[in-house]
Write a structure and sequence with these properties.
mainly alpha
């Protein structure tokens, strides 16, 4: 299977967008708001990329179930390791607080429910771990439907669920979907993962010419603008919630991925493409550094810096860089141990 450099290239911008989303305050001025909404393509793109490469591997493996099993075990191990890390980190700070320690510990562990632990991936300061649980359940569902040769049926089901899920996020002013959270596998991750699978199973998408690629890029840029405007209208005019995903996110993600498939060599040999290939590691680690440094900034009474645009840009670059370097160092240690 030829390497698709363009996906890793776009992942670089996507993971930086995630860091920006988490750094910039949601209640900032209009510029912050636009940046936040434009950056919302990132996580859907990660799901689509995961589904795409998973489906390609499944088609090429002599024993698809063996690859599927190993893939899921790898994701579960990753989730468990970082779940333990974030729980340990949270407990450490509760103990250091030394005020109402027992009460705070009880309250903390009460929120780590069975459902949060196994499905939502919530309950700790590592709130971004929801991506791993959503990906695990999405991949299990996708594999079942691939084996049943009913992936088109799953795409339709997941599309309907995703639209319903939007009423638990961006469109609550029209109707509040009665679910505590729709940012999960069923209402979010499954659709974008299945979208990536469909791209992998449809070989015609990889043979489109470069004119088509440029058209897809243009459509993706239009989608980026529409997504920002949709968020602006819903929040500023209709008084809805922002920092969410929209119907336009679907179109943006699809067009961006189709562009990547038609320019597979894009980013080849570039350092940022190598960084983009490690997007998952940056995604998992950056929240730790963000929480740690935010605590320090609050401790030295400099929290007002979060309102400064230049500070937030520099802070985002710093967190992104240190997260990547940490992940890269951890990978070197891992390879050394294995050797």
């Amino acid at each position: 299977m030829d390497r698709i450099y363009s996906v890793d290239y776009i992942k670089f911008y996507a993971i930086f967008a995630v860091v920006v989303i988490h750094v910039f305050p949601l209640d900032g001025f209009t510029g912050y708001f636009v940046i936040d909404n434009m950056a919302r393509f990132a996580v859907p793109f990660f799901f689509a990329a995961s589904g795409y490469f998973f489906a390609l591997k499944i088609q090429r493996e002599e024993v698809p179930f063996l690859y599927f099993k190993n893939f899921i075990i790898k994701l579960v191990k990753l989730y468990v390791v970082w779940l333990i890390f974030y729980v340990s980190y949270d407990v450490l700070f509760i103990l250091l607080d030394s005020v109402n320690v027992q009460e705070k510990l009880i309250t903390y562990f009460k929120q780590i429910t069975f459902l949060n632990l196994l499905y939502y991936g919530k309950g700790t300061s590592g709130y971004q771990l929801w991506f791993l649980t959503a990906l695990i359940w999405s991949m299990i569902t996708v594999f079942i439907f691939i084996k049943l040769k009913q992936i088109n049926v799953l795409f339709f089901i997941s599309f309907v669920l995703n639209l319903l899920g939007l009423f638990g996020q961006a469109y609550t002013m029209f109707y509040k979907f009665p679910i505590s959270s729709t940012r999960d596998a069923a209402y979010f991750g499954l659709f974008y993962t299945t979208l990536g699978v469909l791209f992998a199973l449809n070989s015609r998408l990889s043979s489109l010419n470069k004119l088509s690629g440029r058209i897809f890029l243009g459509l993706a840029l239009i989608g980026l603008f529409v997504q920002a405007m949709e968020g602006f209208i819903l929040d500023k005019i209709l008084s809805g919630s922002h920092g969410e995903y929209y119907f336009s996110t679907i179109l943006l993600t699809a067009f961006l991925f189709l562009f990547a498939l038609n320019y597979k060599k894009l980013g080849k040999g570039l350092y940022i493409t190598k960084v983009g290939a490690n997007a998952l590691g940056i995604y998992i680690i950056h929240v730790f550094y963000l929480d740690l440094f935010n605590k320090f900034i609050k401790f030295i009474d400099l929290k007002h810096l979060s309102e400064n645009f230049i500070w937030n840009v520099g802070y985002s670059i710093f967190l992104f860089t240190i997260s990547y370097l940490t992940y890269d160092y951890l990978q070197k240690i891992k390879r050394g141990i294995l050797q």
